[in-house]
Amino acid sequence: MKIALLGYGRMGKEIEQIALKRGHQIVIKTSDQEGYDISNADVAIDFSVPSAAVSNISNCINHQVPVISGTTGWLEQYDQVVSLCNQKKGAFIYASNFSLGVNIFFELNKQLAKMMNTIEDYSLSIEEIHHTQKLDAPSGTAISLAEGIIANSAKKKWELDASNSDEIIPISAKRIPEVPGTHTICYESDVDQIEIKHTAHNRKGFALGAVVAAEWLVGKTGVYTMKDVLNLG
Ligand SMILES: NC(=O)C1=CN([C@@H]2O[C@H](COP(=O)(O)OP(=O)(O)OC[C@H]3O[C@@H](n4cnc5c(N)ncnc54)[C@H](OP(=O)(O)O)[C@@H]3O)[C@@H](O)[C@H]2O)C=CC1
Ligand SMILES: O=C(O)C1=N[C@H](C(=O)O)C[C@H](O)C1
Where does (S)-2,3,4,5-tetrahydrodipicolinate bind (predicted)? Predict the structure, then answer.
């Protein structure tokens, strides 16, 4: 496949290595919106910055190029992108986290939320830790985890640095040099603690997931998620 990398930072470079190993060609690598013709690509992979994601994705959809986006921090415009994709009969996948491990963790989190829903003794919190260059907080993955709990419990919303309440899931975001991404869900009672945690050791899992998603999306139309790609039921 001829791949366009929209965003050639930490993730763009990691994706390039994996894509080349899997026999793909990188035809565009860009860190701005100027001077490239997206129609030269079979598929585009956007790992850029929150302020550029919507314009990068829309450009691909408008040129009938299937597009994968892993950029976080722009989701208030997700519905707008989905409408454009449906209107243009394009192909699009967004995932806050492309790694297989985190996508399994998402499902585990939903199951645990269902089990804990009727039990009143525990207070719930989410913690995410990332490197100090990260632009957005909380992480997209932490938001997906909170949404998974909201869909399966009486919780109504998440809030950064909130105190615990019946309706609110507090998320804390820590920034520590070099941490690729650690997410913890914690249910705490007076007598014990139940914790599930995913720790990324490096960025290879995110990058492999994005390339696998790109391979999967080519030839399809519609809006999909990693659950579709990984067939997680
Ligand atoms: N979904 C997932 O699995 C994962 C998602 N992410 C997310 O991916 C995004 C990128 O992460 P990361 O690679 O670490 O960040 P980096 O800052 O290393 O890379 C971002 C790149 O985007 C470039 N850029 C800026 N504006 C544009 C534009 N208009 N078009 C194309 N590229 C542009 C930047 O260029 P310059 O430096 O010149 O400004 C930079 O090279 C973040 O939102 C992060 O949260 C990260 C890991 C996994
Ligand atoms: O910025 C990062 O690095 C990461 N961002 C994603 C997020 O916001 O969840 C995924 C991963 O945790 C790394």
Answer: 131, 140-141
Q: Which of 126, 206, 208, 226 to mutate to test the pocket of ligand 2 (most atoms within 8 A of CB)?
A: 206
Q: What span, in angstroms and rounded, lies between the C-alpha atoms of 59 and 202? A: 30
Walk me through the domains of the chain, giving residue ranges and CATH numbers. 2-98+204-230 (3.40.50.720), 100-199 (3.30.360.10)
Q: What percent of the chain has pLDDT over 90?
A: 93
Helical ranges in 32-77 per DSSP H: 50-62
* Closest residue to atom 34 of ligand 1, CA basis: 31
| ipTM reported for the complex, 2 dp | 0.98
Give the closest ligand to the alpha carbon of residue 16.
1
* Separation of alpha carbons 66 and 48, rounded Å: 16
Binding residues for (S)-2,3,4,5-tetrahydrodipicolinate are 131, 140-141
| pLDDT at position 164 over 90 | no
Task: Give the pTM.
Answer: 0.97
